[in-house]
Amino acid sequence: MTTPRLEIKNIIAGYGAGLVLKGVNLELQTGEVMCLIGPNGAGKSTVLKTVSGLLPPREGQILLDGEDITGQTPKANLRRGVVHVPQERSLFPGMTLWDNLLMGGYLIRDRKLILSRIEEAAHLFPIIRERQKEHAGSLSGGEQKQVELARTLLFDPKLILLDEPSIGLDPKSRRLVFDAINGLAKAGRTILLVEQNARSGLAASDKGAVLETGVVRIVGKASDLLENPEVAKLYLGAAGKNTTVKAVSEKAKEGRS
Amino acid sequence: MHVLIQGLIMGVLTGGVYALMASGQTLIFGVMKVVNLAQGAFVIASAYLTFSLFTQFGIDPFVSILITTPLMFGIGMLAHWVFLRPLRKEDAVELSILVTFALALLVEGLLSVTYRTTYRSINNTYSNKAFLLGDGFSIPYVRLYGFFISIALLLVLYFVLQKTKFGRAIRATVQNPQSATLLGVDSTRVKAYGFGLGIATSAASGSIFGLLYPFNSGSHYDLISRLLSVVILGGLGSIGGAVFAGILIGVVSSVAAVVWSPTWSEMTFFIVLLLVLLFRPQGMFGRLERGAA
Hints:
The structure holds 2 protein chains of 2 kinds. In chain A, 40% of the residues lie in helices and 23% in strands. Chain A contains 11 helices and 10 strands. Chain A has helices spanning 44-52, 74-80, 97-104, 111-124, 127-130, 141-152, 171-186, 198-203, 222-227, 229-236, 245-256; strands at residues 6-15, 18-28, 33-37, 59-64, 67-68, 82-85, 159-163, 191-194, 207-212, 215-221. In chain A, the strands form 2 sheets. Chain A has a 6-stranded mixed sheet, with helices on both faces. In chain A, strands 2-1-4-5 form a 4-stranded antiparallel sheet, with helices on one face. By secondary structure, chain B is an all-alpha fold. Chain B has a single domain (2-279), classed as ABC transporter involved in vitamin B12 uptake, BtuC (Orthogonal Bundle), CATH 1.10.3470. Helices cover 73% and strands 3% of the residues of chain B. Chain B has 11 helices and 2 strands, in the order H-H-H-H-E-E-H-H-H-H-H-H-H. The model of chain B is unreliable at 289-293 (pLDDT under 50).
């Protein structure tokens, strides 16, 4: 049996006195794309932060290719190939695209290697070649996300953590971003994705997980989740606010009994 | 008209030095979001150091920049490590105003003990010499050299920030600290280097300041208020803005001095500051914070 690329074992984490994650367990094989969905405040972004090292967990274990990386700094994890693209715009708006890409290779000493990786990334994201002299702040939201994704490739990443890549984008830009994610997936990258636009996120993924109030409620094949009536009702179509899979399940049980 | 043009020339030459001084101040704000009230004190400390190097060892004040700048870079890094780094992250911006003011008082105290409070000035062989340009315009050598050295140092600063990996890391930290951290930038180290670089930049201008004006340990009060005026006019955190504003205020105050009186020259800094705060609070090259009124 192969060692999973990422194992998250019973992670408990939070901010200040509050707990956000209350025992999260997830597993991701090399080359897989997993989409985390759930309501606001469920702890989806916090999962990514604990993996990248932005938020050290209070309990539990995180393994990358079997190596314990729990509580390591973002820099240490970056050296291992864990790249986190946060929800907020992460480009440097006053810098050119070229300088933004060079910042992606900040930890790499070999300039030739940086240039060759930029060249490789340009095959998947031609925008970084076409508009390299422009300031990042002049790009549209979708274009900026494309550059952010291209920049992750400079690390030759083992694991890409994407937090709400389509948030705040118009439909055309969203399509660009999901095309880019599909491109990364086809290139064999392992991706853990958090996405409010659950249908698009799951469609681009192999696996899916539903997170509610800091706990994983459902995990399985993305295609199964897309067909799951409870998930469909809550996250893929019209549903009442503040409803959870757990609540729907309990209501269904009550109805059956 | 002759007097006006003479004032204009002197203003540009003096403004270049203010531009260098203010670049250090605004760099520190950009990297750390710290309004460093000790910046003027470090400029005066550098002027005293230049004074000592000249009177004790006969080192030319312009040459002494090669000594004062790296030395003050080290002192700036040490000051960051001792006074600013320990501040709690949540309160760092507010507390840093008090801490840097305390640091200014500390530097002033040390200078007072070492040099007494009498005014000092650096007078070398060319201090009072000038040459005539065109239709009888007098150009003092110290101001001319000071201007060109300031511009040269600003170009070095520009090169460091724009063309080096270290400069890119500083700019990245200024623009998006979290993203810079996620790309492997050690923001604590960058802030320390940024603070050191900001102090070093101002220290270089301190050597020139010592040649241009008499100074004592308390001169930093006047200087910091001028520096803040320049930095706010240019836009907090904008080095290009600081350069433009430094030269602009230099020109306006110099022209005011020759057209009206030196008293009005002193006032121009604050009149400009008042006008900026009223009509363009983000400064000429600054951006409004999101959510600000």
